[in-house]
Amino acid sequence: xxxxxLIPIGKMxxxxxxxxxALRLYDEKGLLKPRYVDPDTGYRYYDWGQNARLDMIAYxxxxxxxxxxxxxxxxxxxxxLIEEILVRKNxxxxxxxxxxxxxxxxxxRAITSIERFRKSPVTGMISxxxxxxxxxxxxxxxxxxxxxxxECFEKDVARLRxxxxxxxxxxxxxxxxxxxxxxxLFSMGRFSADRVFVFVEHAQSAARSDVHIVESGMYGxxxxxxxxxxxxxxxxxxxxxxxxxYVIAGDxxxxxxxxxxxxxxxxxxxxxxxxxxxxxxxx
Length: 283
Prior knowledge:
By secondary structure, this protein is α+β, with helices and mostly antiparallel strands.
């Protein structure tokens, strides 16, 4: 083959919409050797038939393969290896898509929480609200932070985050935390921390057997912005339910709608919705 019939490296790069540096890298990695290298100048030349190999490299890269994987395929020339790599890539892409979807849903929850904070009643105001069905995953509290204080709460939150990672939940879930008190205790105006949990999406509840459903319904709600005053406000909610003859129909929940730790590095700046599910006796 005459040198005049060959394609200089710059032209080869232009034809295939890649860089000269990429062609040199493919040469170094053993993916595509130039057809001819000028012994005097070291300049690389290719022929038209090598465009097919570059098309295959580009296609494999689009499928997510690394240069090492592509080189292995070229060397072994086994269809089974291609299938094995693609199956692995497919699983990786599925996991990335799931993670991205969870992140997008978490961003949406954060936006909703901040909007709810801006539009919520003032601290200490009690209201009746309909709350949609929710899905939670959590663990029993090991400390009663109603008697032990903020440090006990932080210890349970740290333990919850460890368990989330063990059970394949993303860390981002741990920024929408809730706690509960058993119905029988709250119905008597008493408080003892029962569970600490996170709110998850419906898709996760369908895929897991350890997600608990919090039924939709009417809730008595009061908002609080200080952890130290949660029990005080929750007791106000309890007495309001008693005064109005509302029947407490489930566990009391403290839901941390959003946190503003950007303002104070020493403790959580929490905005909480304290809530009790209600049942109304109809005549």
